[in-house]
Amino acid sequence: MYKIKINREKCKAGVCGGLCSKLCPSNWRILEDNKAHVIRVKVNSLGCNEKAMLACPFKAISISRM
Questions:
Q1: Whole-prediction pTM value?
Q2: Cβ–Cβ contacts within 10 Å for residue 12, how many?
Q3: Whole domain around residue 22: which residue ranges?
Q4: Beta bridge partners of 64
Q5: CATH number where 58 lies
Q6: pLDDT for the residue 55
Q7: Looking at the 3D structure of the chain, how many domains does it have?
Q8: Residues 6 or more apart from 11 whose CB is under 8 A from it?
Q9: Do residues 42 and 50 touch, judged by C-beta distance below 8 A?
């Protein structure tokens, strides 16, 4: 199992165009404040979440093994 975190202070989804939500729309949304929101914090497999983390230009996404 994995735990996904978003550092909302580092997140600038309005600048990057919400790459995480484009790469992984099943688990990411961009809120009205132009910050990313992770839908499922705990997941059994990384799936597209790893792509979202690696693509984030602000390094705002972290994933840890539980």
A1: 0.92
A2: 15
A3: 2-65
A4: 3
A5: 3.30.70.20
A6: 97
A7: 1
A8: 35, 36, 58, 60
A9: no
